[in-house]
Amino acid sequence: MMITSMSRHKIMIVDDHPFFIHGLERYLSATGKYEIQSALSVGEAMKSIFAFRPELVVMDVSMAEGGGMAMLRQVKEQMDIRTMFLTVQIDPEDTIEALRLGIDAIALKDRDPEDIVKAIDTVLGGKTMIDPSVSEGALRHSMRAPTPMLRQDDLLTPREAEIVELVCQGLKNKDIADRHNLTEGTVKVHLHNVYRKLGVNSRAELIVKKGGLNFGRSTDAA
Asked: Which phi and psi (to 5°) does residue 39 adopt?
């Protein structure tokens, strides 16, 4: 069955390596499933993103003008579209920050092209996909870097607060993942980030701590 331009998914690719970006664009276009627009910088992408209105932005992390993290912040603040990092490597702290900002997928460039297409389709299908090696690295980092006290400027994100509520209802990681279209690895990263912020080490401690905190909300919104 022929896929018309009206039914193709609109994807924007942002990467400052022309050889890679053109190769990926050709590979994805050859599937017939996507309408592609590319940009070689964050600035170039932000100038055209509102006119193109992609369903998904696929971007590298390491670029000029603040790179993928800066673009992720801008996109999430201004548009309701899905986002994906496609990169050689990503620092665990950047992974955790990206999850806080609402990244939908993190994939690695050295994976098989078919795996990258699968990750893209997973995100377009409304689910989150974090490469297992990336989530494991972020998880290990969170476990090694505990934060003893919760600060007023370090409240939980809405997603973290949702996960805390479900943990306190007795749901397991798999149940939480299924409910929010996440992977279990992503839930573990979120949960350990919660542990790090609140200075707790278990679900039981988290439930006790929850009784005295207003998760994910400012004090004047209570």
From this structure: -145, 145
Q: Could you tell me if residue 22 is left (phi over 0), alpha (psi between -120 and 50 degrees) or otherwise beta?
A: alpha
Domain boundaries, the chain: 9-131, 146-214
Per-residue pLDDT of the chain (222 residues; tens, 9 = 90+): 445 555 899 999 999 999 999 999 999 999 999 999 999 999 999 999 999 999 999 999 988 877 899 999 999 888 889 999 999 988 888 888 888 888 999 999 999 999 999 999 999 998 888 888 888 888 777 666 654 444 433 567 788 888 988 988 889 999 999 888 888 888 988 888 888 777 788 888 887 777 655 544 443 333
Q: How far apart are CA 166 and CA 176, in angstroms?
A: 7
What CATH number does domain 146-214 carry, 3.40.1260.10, 3.90.400.10, 1.10.10.10, 3.30.365.10?
A: 1.10.10.10
Nearest one of 59, 55, 58, 144 to 93, comparing CA atoms: 144
DSSP of 89-146: ---HHHHHHHHHHT--EEEETTS-HHHHHHHHHHHHTT--EE-HHHHHHHHHHHHHS-
Axis-axis angle for helices 132-144, 184-198 (nearest 10): 10
Total-model pTM: 0.67
Please give the class, per CATH, of domain 9-131: alpha beta
Q: What's the farthest any 2 CA atoms get from each other in the chain?
A: 58
